[in-house]
Design brief:
Blueprint: H1 10-17, H2 21-30, H3 36-44, H4 50-57, H5 75-87, H6 94-106, E1 108-109, E2 115-116, H7 124-138, H8 142-150, H9 178-196, H10 199-214, H11 244-253, H12 263-271, H13 302-316
Antiparallel strand pairs: 1-2
């Protein structure tokens, strides 16, 4: 595998830079190595232009994005907040402060005695996302982090179906879910980076990372078979869904040195590349946010191309 054959070409970079500010500033940070000042200037545009500005404008006065009949879990709002974070909306911008102030002061989980939204609810997959939103936009939530640490399973990950609140009549799973685990991992990493690093939190995070790595990011530990072939197809937004590219981008972001356990995943990323050097949108999930960014399944995706290129760069820069 000659990774230099998959390095971004000038035409690929130009195409990415001609897209949304959310793509541009991450290209400048992760692929072209621009100065911190130039990156910050471009990132600031997320609040006032393109996808970021459009999503901010769609927030209701009540603080949510799903309308007056939004489901009890406020899932459209959750997904929108996660996407705003993924876009890199500067949390210090006045637009972000206004947005998160509405969320913090006006949104509650009514079925949980009006618990404040950013305090989380009952399912680990949702709480993992909320755990990451708190320190990014406002402040870390220690109680929510401790709740998640107490729900970690013996094999190192998490699973919403491991707890009776989801369906008291169903048998409780004692095996982790890739979907839930990646959601919690992303939240724990954000929580630690907000100054909440401790031996207990780091140990829990590393156990969960090993859960993914020991399974080569997509295989059964017992049989070696591919757990779900849908994980080999890449989407954005990912919502709660795991896929190999999302998993590898997390491992890269966590600063883990690549080794043989990610090699198969890297090969899958390469196989998904089109001849024009871009990565397509492979799948659209049923969940949604109130803005369509990329909708053409099979067409070139800026999000998938950006993430694939930075994952390949991370892997290629390793000397393992």
């Amino acid at each position: 595998m000659r990774l230099r054959d998959y390095a971004p070409r000038p035409a690929h970079i130009k195409w990415l830079l001609n897209s949304d500010p959310a793509i541009r500033w991450q290209v400048m940070r992760d692929l072209t190595g621009e100065s911190p000042g130039a990156i910050a200037d471009e990132r600031s545009r997320v609040a006032t232009e393109g996808w970021g500005a459009q999503l901010l404008a769609l927030q209701s006065p009540a603080g949510n994005w799903g309308g007056p009949q939004e489901d009890r879990g406020l899932l459209i709002t959750l997904y929108t907040l996660v996407v705003l974070k993924d876009l890199g909306l500067d949390p210090a911008s006045k637009q972000a402060r206004k947005m998160i102030d509405r969320v913090d002061k006006r949104l509650v989980f009514k079925q949980l005695n009006h618990r404040p939204y950013l305090h989380g609810e009952t399912e680990p997959c949702i709480n993992g996302r909320i755990l990451g939103l708190g320190p990014y936009f406002k402040e870390p939530n220690d109680a929510l982090a401790n709740q998640l640490l107490g729900e970690q399973l013996e094999d190192g990950g998490w699973n919403c179906e491991a707890w009776p609140f989801l369906s008291p009549k169903r048998p409780q799973s004692r095996r982790s879910s890739f979907h839930t685990t990646i959601c919690v991992l992303e939240g724990l990493l954000e929580y630690e980076r907000a100054g909440r690093k401790s031996a207990v939190v780091t140990k829990a995070r590393k156990r969960a990372e090993n859960y993914l790595l020991a399974r080569h990011m997509f295989r059964s530990l017992r049989t070696g078979e591919v757990i779900d072939k849908r994980w080999l197809r890449f989407s954005f937004p990912t919502f709660w869904h795991y896929d190999v590219l999302r998993g590898l981008d997390y491992v890269r972001n966590a600063g883990i040195k690549p080794d043989s356990r990610v090699r198969e995943g890297i090969e899958i990323v390469i196989q998904r590349r089109h001849q024009n050097g871009r990565w397509p949108l492979n799948i659209l999930h049923a969940e949604h946010i109130p803005l369509e960014m990329e909708t053409g399944v099979g067409r070139a995706s800026c999000w998938n191309t950006l993430r694939a290129l930075r994952v390949l760069r991370w892997y290629g820069n390793s000397t393992w």
